[in-house]
Amino acid sequence: MNPVRTNCPPAQQNGNPSNELMRQKIASFVNSLSPPKVLYIHGQSGVGKTHLINQTLSNFEDGKKAIKVLNANSFVPSILSAINKNSLESYRSSLECYRLVVIESMDFFSFKQPAHVELLKAIEYVLSHDHMKVVITSQSHPSKLVGLNRKRINWLNSCIILQIASPTNYDKLLLIQAFVRKHKMQISAKAVEYLCVQGPDNYFYLLGILNTLKLYYKHTNCPITIRTPEFLILLWRC
Predict the structure, then answer these.
(1) Full-prediction pTM beyond 0.70?
(2) Among 25, 61, 189, 211, which residue's Cβ finds the most Cβ atoms within 10 Å?
(3) Residue 167 dihedral angles phi and psi, to the nearest 5°
(4) Which of 158, 154, 106, 103 has its CA nearest to residue 125?
(5) Does the pLDDT at position 25 exceed 90?
């Protein structure tokens, strides 16, 4: 099956059409009973993958064990413990009570050979049960993952693949406007334009710049000019 790729900028503001579209696509996958049962979402760091998934999956919590989230912090210690206790099968079978397994940051696992092998085995176990599905997030397309053999890459390529694109200038504008309104800041139109065009595509970095501007404004109570964001962007890039 050919992968379905959707390039859709995810503004972090509630009500943004692109955000809602991505939520609908994730919800459609979770509700669907037909294969493939793996949704692979990729996009560069800070574009809002985890934020968007958390917003979407919160609607599917119909029980305490409906959703299981696996990341390096939780999975690696669990696998090491299971290996030491010779209880890998028991660990995998413990996943049966979940109907949806979310695997965060597949890239990180790919650098840890034993961990990602066991992770893929856990996925295969999960997919052997008709009622279970998997959502994987990654900064990279499956073909660019490090440490995977061709067979596993081809398998991931056969999944449903959604790409979350970097934010557009309009997405950044919505975020900046909401931030400025919330904190009642005085910021010039030129400063906003500069942040939209020259500001980072990583939402965390952009929010860091806005928070720094907020502190500047709070302590000086002066309108923010074009020079301030230009300096801060250079500072945050260092």
Answers:
(1) yes
(2) 25
(3) -65, 140
(4) 103
(5) no
